[in-house]
Amino acid sequence: MYRRLLFFLILFFPLNPLPSLHSLNLDFENVSPNQSPIDWYTEGSLDTRTGKIKSAEEEGFKVIMDSNISHSGKYSLLIKSLQGGRGGSAREDCLPCIDSLVNLFHGKVVTYSGWIKTEHVSRWAGLWLRLDADHKVLYFNNMYDSAISGTRDWKKYSFTFSFSDSAKDFDFGVIMGDTTEGKAWFDDLSLDISPTH
Fold first, then answer.
1. 132: domain CATH number?
2. Considering the domain boundaries, does residue 165 fall inside one?
3. Which of 24, 54, 68, 132 has the fewest C-beta atoms lying within 10 Å of its C-beta?
4. What is the per-residue pLDDT for 196?
5. Are the CB atoms for 75 and 67 separated by under 8 Å?
6. Model confidence, pTM
7. pLDDT per residue as tens digits for the range 95-135
8. CA nearest to 131, candidates 175, 174, 169
């Protein structure tokens, strides 16, 4: 009887493990049939007049998977400014239940890194990450001050921060902003916990 009950539970209520760092598609190798990275989504910047997030296309950007240029594997993520771009911004954000990973990072020193290649970027491209608690921003970095612009070959970029015990959620991804022309490729992202002493 117990075996039958266990079989029933497994059949109709399969175990869905919480996402782990290894399941976040940080190398962009898991691609959907419409050629977008699985578990990621694209958006533009906030329209201060309406309070709504614009699409990347409204901001003058196209976000696609590139199978011709990559740091490793078959794919990289490419954000490119469309002709006549308005100088807005476009982001690719990681989607899976990031909140479920918060406990993994609480009280730790975390390094967010990734490989970036640029071509004729007029302003800047970078990694971005935001840490929140109760609608309060605890940490934010979009690498605006790092000035990854112009034309550069693949290089690994990173920033390190303390992950507050009070953090309740965080978001991260990649960005190209204030840009009217250029392309930026992103690949092999990583979130690493520094060894504790």
1. 2.60.120.260
2. yes
3. 68
4. 58
5. yes
6. 0.84
7. 655 666 788 888 899 999 999 999 999 889 999 999 989 88
8. 169
